[in-house]
Amino acid sequence: ESFSYDNNREPKGIxxxxxxxxxxxxxxxxxxxxxxxxxxxxxxVSVYSSADLxxxxxxxxxxxxxxxxxxxxxxxxxxxxxxxxxxxxxxxxNATVKEINFNTGTSISISTPEETNAAQAVINYxxxxxxxxxxxxxxxxxxxxxxxxxxxxxxxEEFTNEIQVSYSPEQNVCFVVQAEIYSDRTPPLLLLYENxxxxxxxxxxYALTGETEPGCTLMINDQAFPVNEDGTFxxxxxxxxxxxxFTVIATDIAGNSAMQTINIRKSGSMPKGKSNLNMKNFxxxxxxxxxxxxxxxxxxxxxxxxxxxxxxxxFKAVISAIRNVFAVITPIAFGIxxxxxxxxxxxxxxxxxxxxxxxxxxxxxxxYEAINxxxxxxxxxxxSLIIFGTSLLITILLSWAIKSFNKNKMKNSVEPGx
Length: 418
Hints:
Elements: E1 18-22, E2 27-31, E3 42-49, E4 58-62, E5 68-72, E6 79-88, E7 91-92, E8 96-101, E9 106-110, E10 115-116, E11 120-137, E12 140-155, E13 159-170, E14 173-183, E15 190-192, E16 198-201, E17 205-212, E18 217-220, E19 223-225, E20 232-238, E21 242-251, E22 257-266, H1 283-309, H2 314-351, H3 354-362, H4 364-414
């Protein structure tokens, strides 16, 4: 059954209306605000496709205060036909018909991707004849005449840009091509967790860990490597003897790149295993231990002499006070050592378990923190163990010195004539 209207008197139709075809959004804007009819009852719009001219692909009636509508279309058809009516005094007007052909002889496209690091957007065109096009960038418009086949560029700002190109092959018919382009010119984050220019190892491979921004591509010596969803990565790098230079490049969606170079040295003479312990960290402890030993030696050398001269003197009181201090430190250091021993064992079991491998796959940062936790506990364990041994030795030696004082006192008390 075909679509038809019963209209006997047929009042004059609307003079014209504006039609805008958005090829990007595949929509049709119909606007009759400049030709609206006074005191009409309603407006009626029907849209036909060249694929079926008998039944409308769109039909709707509008209140008198509505002066425009928007319809989804298929730009792949040859043409569309728009019919606009109005009803006044219960009589339907004659149709105002506009047939819009999609083959206009002009083609416009914006070739710059939606995310870019460029400062300009490239617009390609092809036109059978000379045609003025209106280019709008973030609300700033200019008119450019095109002819034949070619392209032109327009400047864009950093971050979000709204670009629209429009052309009119006939009066009150406009074709629109638009794009939203995000210009990002900031290099992405690239962090290698090994914060050093040269790493030395004895293994035939090295696990390089780090992070970049999510969505980035990662290249190591021109070879692509995957990145986790959170931007972290962990990859085994094959090593040969000597220095191995690796160039790590992270590139974001916009094309910005960040680069770091790292040297991994494979050495056959280096002891197995990896440790971040540094003797500089223990230098204050070693100096303190040496001074303590020097103090004990001095006490031992002169204890008998002072014991004979001043058996009840201040020197004995000072030695007793020092002995008591170290006697208190000794069990505290021992307790901390035992606690750190158990924590060290637990941390070691974690980083040597199958669950740790899964943790590395899920979050490189958390896996790296697990290693750091083990090393911190190990450092505290070693330091507390040294303090315990030093305090115990000092306590024993000072106790022996005090005992020597007491023996001298008893000896002096039984000697005749003293």
